[in-house]
Amino acid sequence: MKKSFVTLLVLFVAVSAMAVDLPKQGFGLQVGWAQPILRINDATHKDTLNNVIKMNGLKVGVLYDASYIAGFGSTMGINYTLGIYNGGWKSTNAYGMPYPRSRTIISYHQMEVFVDWQYKFEIAKETYLTLYTGPTIQCGVGLSMRVDKQEDEGIPYETMRYDGYTNDVHDQQFKRLNVTWGVGAAFQYKRYFLRGGYDFGLLNPHKYVDYESGIHSRGRLDQWSIKIGMFLWYAN
To answer: What is the CATH number of the domain that holds 125?
Structure first.
């Protein structure tokens, strides 16, 4: 997995280096809000949604923007995303099943390599409206899910970690790799820009089996995001 992520990074740098003669290009930074969403579904009945876990956090990254022909071009880059979830005290678990009153807290960290194909509409001088779509490869670098059980006087225990775990009762996996396809829009004025969109998860990195209850669940990871940024270097 680490070798694959390094390979993608090298390809990203190589493509950027090859594009030095493009008429319009820029290199910038972005920061904003992100909401990774874990959609847990019944593995047998695909249309049955057991629960939705929305993690709010932040996204920071670097990007390279280029126009090739007229308004057609692409934006590619690398992001770091943090998501935090505090579910409050509930009487059901993450899979929507009855459970002793408990509270779930999740901390999620990931790196992302994205490529968006786009078209820029020049709506005024040095002012653009952009529509874009494209894939993102996500690599999880940190995951912690803590459950505080009220009946145990708040003594927490860890679950839902990378590489999974298996015992006589549960079989749970959360894979590091995820692939999404995003759609979004952007507004740019001179060197400053605002980008926002939604990424649809194409894989099911989260899988769960409860042998006692017979529950077989899987989870798709989507994401909302909105970022503001600035091109540190921009050539028209």
So the answer is: 2.40.160.20
Residues spanned by the domain of 89:
2-235
CA distance 91 to 97: 8
Total number of domains constituting the chain:
1
The values of phi and psi at residue 9, to 5°, are: -65, -45
CA angle 54, 143, 208 (to 5 degrees): 75
Q: What is the pLDDT tens value at each position of the chain, 236 positions in all?
A: 555 655 655 565 555 545 444 458 899 999 999 999 998 887 665 555 568 889 999 999 999 999 988 889 999 999 999 999 987 777 776 666 667 777 788 899 999 999 999 999 999 998 999 999 999 999 999 888 777 776 655 555 555 667 666 667 767 778 899 999 999 999 999 999 999 999 999 998 888 777 777 777 888 999 999 999 999 988 87
